[in-house]
Amino acid sequence: MSHEPVAAPSAWVVRWAPMIRPGGAVLDVACGSGRHARWLAALGFEVDAVDRDATLFPDPPRGVKLLAADLEDGSPWPYAGRRFDGIVVTNYLHRPLLPILVDSLEPGGLLVYETFARGNERFGKPSNPAFLLSPGELLDAVRGRLRVIGYEDLSVQEPRPAAVQRMAARLE
Ligand SMILES: C[S@@+](CC[C@H](N)C(=O)[O-])C[C@H]1O[C@@H](n2cnc3c(N)ncnc32)[C@H](O)[C@@H]1O
What we know:
seven-stranded mixed beta sheet
């Protein structure tokens, strides 16, 4: 049993989760300790959560199906054929997954993405450009496929100083 305090969900995820079909299927990509999977399950969503390190999330609650999978090792996408009402990605970027995530939405489904952007090197890690979105990159990833209903590209102070890009986009 973990005695680590459960980290709070991102304010961006909290803001947009009410736009996901109530009780729908949600995928938490690179879920880490499961702060979003846990919170979304408590709201009544059926959550699939995936991370290459399942030990980070040792006690998934009812309503969360945790999968240990490396999403970057060239293996087939583990949710092939599945469609989700919501997909949540925070603080993780593997660019080849972006079109796969778009393809994995149900009609009406919402992609909620938030991760570090160029400029974050001023604040600390990550500072490797491979892990930093370039200006407009999330918008480019969904252009012509999803309707962007929320987007920000800014520096934040909470939960710690960082440069982030964040987007909520729907498959219509
Ligand atoms: C900064 S943490 C973010 C965790 C969570 N999304 C959050 O915001 O609390 C990045 C996560 O990506 C996972 N990750 C990194 N590379 C991965 C890969 N190749 N396949 C699956 N998960 C990976 C790590 O294990 C880690 O849990």
